[in-house]
Here is the input.
Amino acid sequence: MVGIRRVFISLLLCALPLCVLAQSEPDGFVGRQLSQLSARGERLTEALNGAQQEYQQQASDSLSKVIYELEKQLSAIENAIARLNAQQQNAKKEDVASEQPTTIVEPTEKEIIPEEPTPHEEVVVEEQPQPETQETQETQETQETQEPQNTIVASEELKSLFSTTSRRYALIEGEIAELIEEYGKVYNTILASLKGYEDATSLKVLNAHHKEYLAAVERSGRIADSIAQRSDLMLTSKTNSYLGFADSLGIDTLRAHYNALAEQTEATMSEKLAGKCTDIDLAMYPHRLRNTIRLEALLAQDLAPEIADSLMARAESFDTTFTLFSPYGTPKRSNVEFKGVTINKKAKEKAVSSLPTIKIPSEGELYSITVANYASLPPSTKVFRGATPLLRERREDGRTYIYIGLYPTARSAQDDIALLRKVGFKQPELVMWRDGIRRDDFVDRNSAPTTPKAAMWRVEISGATTVLPTEVLGAIREKAPRKEISKFNAADGTTLYTVGIFTKENEAKAVATAIRQTTDSLSVEVVQVGKK
Here is the structure.
């Protein structure tokens, strides 16, 4: 049915110039112009029919823009033909009037014969004033009441074109909505892959989630670019179409009103949405669309009154949050190639002193499993039961620690810790580096024994209102550079800071003493947290 209507409208547009031409004989300069305009109108109508058929098979913004331009040109041709036809008819009337016989009256001496006006002069005939009766006054008052000034009169052709245009853009809006729905599905895939990454208990599963994450991010970027491109074309074309209707109706203030509204939306909403969404163009789309719906509603008051109220209600209650996708995190990956544990009992043995030194990234977190430490290294890697990859680190106490595997999260090493225990390693423990510093007080609850073998201590600081003073932080970094500083908010509203877990009480006391020397306003205590 839609296709039939479009063909009918196209035939109507094509027939209009022909009908006009049929009323006047194409002679002279005006006739040639009419003939040329009619031929051009036929060509444009043929192109319009082809574009409408192609659009019906596969809608697109570019075709919509072509259809709009063709319709606009056809409308201009129709108006030009109407003006030329009126000009030709006026000329014929003047010719007929000039052929009428006239009676020549001899002038008397007192009469003056007026000069005949030139073709460029306008003859003004003064009418004799007629006495106004009561009936005449009442008729004038009634006409003034029934025909107010600035009344907008829209033709049926313009109303039909407005309805067709509105339906076409509603179809494109639906296509963009489908793309946004697809973006939402990919966005959920990203969130799921991030959660799976953090919860992975093996490096194999973790890498699978990371691969899924990268693919989903790349796909979401492609969809967002497509939405931005299509929505920009659609909104631009839709706005130009509706402003064209406003110009046809003679509504001069609508264009300025819309431009001011659009500028205000761009200035205020883009600033509010910055940093709160994954894609600013995607988040701005419903705000821009709402402005065009408002424009459509204002035009509908004169062109389609039956839908004006519903359009205005839709604009006012439009949901502008359905494209507001919150920024998602990124996986904790450093520039290190992560490797899990592999057991190969036939692996070639080599000297422990030849093992590569572990490389610690300056940013992010890195985890590994420590299986032994030596004051003097054994001659061969045979003691490690064919486990790889093996790495070493010489610490400040002079001992060399041996690690197996590299992991981005603590969970991703859990399966390998269980594997190492199964092949005979007595106490494999997880070690963490954060921003290039080894955290000796890190305790992995899945690898460490449930009951501590020795007592442990920590330093507790109370009395700080917001953050620790700079001099206190400096003393902690100097005395315990690899210890964590944690903050706790108690139920009574007080704030408690803790430093470390210390395996030696004298190290904890040294840190507490250094803190006390910097300030008297804080309470500093060494608290035992483990049992002997």
The chain has a mean pLDDT of 80. The longest strand covers residues 365-374.
